[in-house]
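Record 1 of the preview.
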Amino acid sequence: MAKGNPKGGIDNWLLEGGHPFLTRIGNLYYMLITRHFDIALYKNESLNNLDSVIPYRAFCSDFLNIGSNFWAFFAGWGEMLAPELHNVDGSWYIYFTGWKWYNESYPTSPPSSPPELWVMKSTTDSPDGPYVLSNSLDITQGMHGTTFKWRGQNYFAWSEIQSDSSTQCLKVAPMCSATAVGYPRVTISCPQYDWEKAGGKAVNEGPAALMEGNQLFIVYTAGNSHTESASMGMLQLKSGNLDVLNPSSWKKGDKPVFKTDSARLQFGPSNPSFTKAPGGKWLMAYQAKNVSDSGGLHEGGSSLVKVWVKEFDWKGGIPNFEPAPNQTYFGYRHVFARDTDANGNQLVCPNAPWNNQAATPAPVSSCK
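->
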């Protein structure tokens, strides 16, 4: 495995996946990565050789079976991003963002549909699955969803595309079940600072809850994540405020908490997730390029995007993501996932109903 030199220089990054989600379950690390058309699941006891693990496909789209036929991708096939693995009320779920394409004007000008938030459920009591599609969530123009529990209540947070079709804001709502989001649905952050509008897009997305003691934070991606201008911002639930659903309970930092570090060859860090290592040390997984922008680079489809994991500490009860002396970074090489799930069951991608307009659509789950 390649490791970062704290004085500058990262060697041999080979990952072609993006939107990493890292969690520790029992004595194993689980990492989900998307390559746009499948969700790869890595698991291992150590991060030190996670790059040598051949991942399994937790889910895959029909695109994987059509090879290099680019236009077929637009003829009813789908894309998926930002998978997350969570245990909600005793069962395991994967939440992800999905797009569906329709072929009314194929092959001349294929239109894309709005993003949708989807849920898969493990058919066993194991995070290994196998997983089956449960339903889509009753959220319009929603993407990059996550769930967290605070004071005994499950909440769902996501990024929502606004009516101008270019701005994305963060929203949060209570969950009435693991597969349904309730009301009220409140906006807790919209881009307001220049760094949140960097790279030509006013974006708050990729929320990740971080809890320590009685403190609750939401770390998010700000700006255009397709560029090195992307950074991470942070919301903090104000001391003494327990109402997650009150926008005034949240305090937003006026500066990025993590951003491009050219000395370490990290450009446009985004899409964070958090877990603890044995011994209690906090870890953050995220994606970043290892080169400066050179025109049209984007996350999972670009070989210039890497998955990173770094340790971080706390100062005065606040997470401190800035590099420390001798800080270690890890990078993971990309290996194509097997055509089986973690239990060895064969995955048949063409039967994935969420991305095939000819298939029976999955139900939309609502608290109404």
